[in-house]
Every structure is written in structure tokens, then in C-alpha cells.
């Protein structure tokens, strides 16, 4: 039996480390194709020193200094986080502002999908009845009601994909007018306006909460296609008409029928790919994320921008250490400054909580070969492709709030998978792409989630959770462009309802999580 070829991946000629690509890693004594002999056993996705690195010497990956050696590191050694001192965060002063010459991206015409047109000009990829809540107190009642609606009513409305309760842990016991309280409130408002919900407005309220329905959804929040539809349709549980628990459930179900009838009358129609609003995100990242899955997503991002679509990338702490790369790609100095403002706001937020920036890299990230947040940031940014960054959203804002119609957008969010996903739902995404190296069953009920594995080993083991295997890039079986095009066509199929993602098939739906920087009372 022949010994498998030892494989490593270097990202730039100036790098002095490479990652081991072989499943299971490589043992000490392995001779690499260039003659380098491994001194240590190096796990898959972890770094090996290509040259001798002196104490205090810079360790470079992506042609970026990801750390400084705490002691001499010999060529062939395993380079891990315990050997590195993390660099200081990049200053937000003196950054390059819109200095990169805009790449010429040839328009990509002729691509369409089957979607649901909405009165406000947006397009849904799903046809979902979403029931909004004003306070966490009603979550149990709504959950009971939604289960009954799905079992007893939904089969009568075959053109409606699902019924979703928009539950959360906000609404009362909060400083409703405090600085920062506008973030969770506008997030909830804009989630209710997601394109996949068809403009239907149904709210379940307790009655005594601070976040009253009229405050959450003031008049004019929704353009209503059907003039017979009420602007705000509220079931208040404390209403005196409700005698007993089941009368509350009956009221919710009766009101749901009205909305289900209207949603069921909708039909998919052919729309251009420019109607896609795609959120890209990564979670459970490893050192392959920036080598396989995220570059493939970045290639697809460029395809989407060429097709006139909107793509959002996010996660402040995961791009903060590459802020100079982002500001230089801004379409204007104003867009660059908006990104800096969001980073500065979040720096101050973390500083107020005395949060160490190194806390972002999780134990799983480190097990997957990522030594620190600087290295993680370099792999995260490549999801954004090469297009100019044309707009910036603050947490909880909707694309329309900033007058953004298309292009590559930076949507400022925390790095938490669930808060990031929630804020992208609020921004107006109708399709989600999520890359992972360690693996996560993340999914959303509100928006289809396409999962992309960074490694073939993960794609094989989680064969019924991962939709795309980008690990084929590292295996030499596919190029970044091959996987990027595959993802683009899969997006059109999923958006059209022709294919369901694994998360949809298994109904793996994580709860939405609000970002609430305001104090509680």
C-alpha cells in the first residue's frame, strides 16, 4: 500500500507557515514534498513552520502577521496558539479610505429564480406566516398556538410554506427609552418586515408590557397590498374577551386564518437574480474556512453582485483586525468612515464590558487550527469577495432604511452566529449562506440556510447536514470557481423552492437572539 502524499497549503509566497491538509494530520518524521521534515505531529488544519522563526519573530499567514513567536520555532514544528503572542489591534486612525481601484466586474445577466413579489418591491424566497410578539411573556402561548396552526390549519393552505412565531426575550423589564434600546426595537420591527413574510401583520401581545404594539409597529410600517387588511392586527391576551387559556388559542387561530388565506393566494413568479438578498456568515470556523469555503463564497459573492443582487457580510469582531482591507475597498470615503464608526462603537461597547478581544476565538476554533482572532479575521473577510463595499448598516437596520438597493454591504453585527443571523433577517435577507469547519446544526425558520463544509471529512460525516462540500478544493478535486458556481446555481434552486436545504428538511431552526446593549430594569 502506498503512503498518501503529505499535503500542506500556503496562502502567500511570503508566508512562513502552512496548514496541513491531510485527514487526521501528519505524524512527526513525515517528509513533505519540498523536503521539510516534520519535528512534531501536526493535526489537520494546523500550522507547520516552513522556516526557522526566532523568538520575537513574526509569524505570517495570508501575508499578514498573525503573531510573534514566544520562543524559537524550528522549521517543521507545529505552530499553535500557545507559541504566539497576538498582535495589537489595528488602529482606527490613518486607515486607507476607498483607495483600491474598483475591479471591473462584468454584468452577469440572464439568471432568474421563482419568487414571491411583495408590495414594497422586495421578493420572498418563501411564503411564511410570521406572528410577531411584543413581549417574552406570550412565548409559551404562541408556541402552543403555532403547533396547532401547523397541525390543523396549514394543510388547508398548500401554498403557505410555514408558520413561525417570532419569539424573543424582550419587551418588559427593560429600560425601554435607554440609550441603545432602539437597537432591539428596530430589530424586532424589521424582522416582521422580512420579504419572506409577504407583508402580513399579525401580533400577539400580553397587554401590560412596555413595548406596546403601536410602538413596535407604528402606523405606516407596512405597505399593504390588500386595502382590506388592517394595518395592525393584534391579539391581546389580557383582553377581557378571553376567558381561559383555550379562548386565547382560539383567537390566535381565527386571526391566523385571515392571513393564511391571503398568503395562500400568492404564487411564485419569475424574477431576476438581482432580487436576491443574501447574508453570508461563518460559524464553527477552522483554518480551512479561509482556504476553501469562504473563498468559494467570496467567488459567489462576486457573481451575485455582477447579477445585481445584494450580499451582506457581517461579524464586527471577526473582521476588525482586517479593517484596513475593508476601508480600502469602500466605494467612497463616506462608506469607509461608516465602517470605522461601527468598529469604534463596538470597540467602546466591548471596552465597557471589559471584554478581551482574544475571547472571540473559541476552543473549537483553536482545535481547528485557528490560533487567534487575527488569523480568524483574515479567513472571514474573504467571504466578501472582491467587489467594492457600497453600503453599511448599523445593528437592526433594514437595507431600505439606508436607501441600499443592491451591491456588497457591510452589516455590522456581533460575531455570535444567532445574533448575526437575527440581524441579517432584520436587514431583509431572503437567503442565507453559512460556512463551517468544525460543524454546527445552525438553521433558521425564517430564511433558507445553505450550509457549506470547509473539509471533506466533515462533509462525509455530516452528509445529511451539509449542502455543499468546499473541502474538494483542498483535495484537488475542484477549484474555488467550481464550488462558487455550484453555490450560485444552488442558491437559485433553493430560492425558487425547487430544492430544500438540509436544515429545512430536518426543520433545524435556532431561536432568534436580539442584540440588546441597553440596561435592564
Polypeptide structure, described:
With 521 residues, the protein is α/β, with parallel strands linked by helices. It has helices spanning 139-153, 182-192, 213-216, 245-264, 293-306, 316-319, 323-329, 333-352, 363-367, 373-381, 417-427, 456-461, 471-475, 480-496, 502-506, and strands spanning 8-9, 17-20, 47-49, 58-61, 64-69, 78-79, 84-85, 112-117, 123-124, 128-133, 162-166, 202-205, 233-236, 269-272, 277-282, 310-313, 389-393, 407-411, 431-436, 449-453, 468-469. Helix 3 (213-216) links the parallel strand 12 and strand 13. Helix 1 (139-153) crosses helix 4, helix 5 (293-306) crosses helix 14 and helix 7 packs antiparallel against helix 8 (333-352). The mean pLDDT is 94.
Assign a percent range to the helix content: 25-40%
**Helix/strand structural class:** alpha/beta
The largest beta-sheet arranges its strands as: 17-18-16-15-19-20-21
**How many β-strand runs?**
21
Topology:
Layout: E1 8-9, E2 17-20, E3 47-49, E4 58-61, E5 64-69, E6 78-79, E7 84-85, E8 112-117, E9 123-124, E10 128-133, H1 139-153, E11 162-166, H2 182-192, E12 202-205, H3 213-216, E13 233-236, H4 245-264, E14 269-272, E15 277-282, H5 293-306, E16 310-313, H6 316-319, H7 323-329, H8 333-352, H9 363-367, H10 373-381, E17 389-393, E18 407-411, H11 417-427, E19 431-436, E20 449-453, H12 456-461, E21 468-469, H13 471-475, H14 480-496, H15 502-506
Parallel strand pairs: 10-11, 10-12, 12-13, 15-16, 15-19, 16-18, 17-18, 19-20, 20-21
Antiparallel strand pairs: 1-2, 2-3, 3-6, 4-5, 5-7, 8-9, 8-14
Helix pairs in contact: 1-4, 2-11, 5-14, 7-8
